[in-house]
Amino acid sequence: MKVLHVEGGRNLYGGARQVLYLLEGLEQRGIDNVLVCPAGSELAREAAAHAEVHAIPMSGDLDFRLIGRLYRIIGRVRPDLAHLHSRIGADVMGGIAARLAGVPVVHSRRQDNPEMRWAVAVKYRLHDRVVAISEGIARVLASEGLPAAKLRVVRSAIDPAPFLQPGDRPGFRTEFGLPEDCTVIGVIAQLIERKGHRFLLEALPELTGRYPGLHVLLFGKGPLESSLIETVRHLGLADRVHFAGFRDDLPRILPCLDLVVHPALREGLGISLLQAAAAGVPIVASRAGGIPEAVRDGDNGLLVPPGDAAALAAAIRRLLDDRDLARDMGQRGRALIGREFSVEGMVEGNLAVYRELLAEKGSPLS
């Protein structure tokens, strides 16, 4: 079997990292992979060991020339099917190109943002299967009219091994300029509106008054950075909230955190939550999208209503005040990852979708 994968992300964030996991797992199972991704991207470099890589210009949702580029690549490599892994133009332009070439199409949906029913009816007509990475996303798609016959759920996954190492807390404190007796909350998310950073900032004055050693590290970049910095200054919390930028060494950092907070308004699943759980860190998060699949309320963390700063503060207080409970939740998080979010399970789930689709199309399986 030969599979053409299309991923429009340039950096190895959650979605592109999933593609890399999938390419490696499929290669181990004897599947021939062809990857189309942006020229100069991190994914292009990392995937070269597991796929025939075509790094081409990809300019987003309105890059209509992408149709021709993909059509020509499909004609040359002759895949059995195409798997479109992202939006950023790949879902629509890739779907059109594959349809023109007569190749079956699988599309992975990673976000839970709502779409108009007419858009769902038009766009997903291009796809033979739509793979939701969480039950939460699947519910959104079903509510918008996507036929059940097209919809499958294959959860995203992580490799927990890098997150099992103990943290170097003294070195961690020195690196980020934190006092020796501090308590550290981490937020790992792009600095964009739907990640809900403002609700944590709204809760912080009360929390920092109650916990004098409390510090917050915001990991990530995004268009809201300057606005969030100004909000922190306005609240007088510049010495407590630290903008740490994008980091590719989270396996080293996460075990040093006391708590991960994720106050998102929408979230497909939350790879950073899976990583935190693998590192044994308890989590406070919003009950939004696919988050309840990654954070089981009362098991490996606490869930609060989205946009409720008071409830967020109360949940944080509960875990900071009860360190035994927090430690137990961290241990249960590690067990959850091994049980339900393995890379092996994700690879097998996608491969099952491929085989089902090719059998339906009458294509020989290999």
UniProtKB/TrEMBL annotation:
Gene3D superfamilies: Glycogen Phosphorylase B. Keywords: Transferase. GO terms for biological process: carbohydrate derivative metabolic process. Residues 14-160 form the Glycosyltransferase subfamily 4-like N-terminal domain. GO terms for molecular function: glycosyltransferase activity. It holds the Pfam family Glyco_transf_4. InterPro entries: Glyco_trans_1, Glyco_trans_4-like_N. Residues 172-334 form the Glycosyl transferase family domain. SUPFAM superfamilies: UDP-Glycosyltransferase/glycogen phosphorylase. This is Glycosyl transferase, group 1 family protein. It comes from Methylococcus capsulatus (strain ATCC 33009 / NCIMB 11132 / Bath). The lineage of its organism: Bacteria, Pseudomonadati, Pseudomonadota, Gammaproteobacteria, Methylococcales.
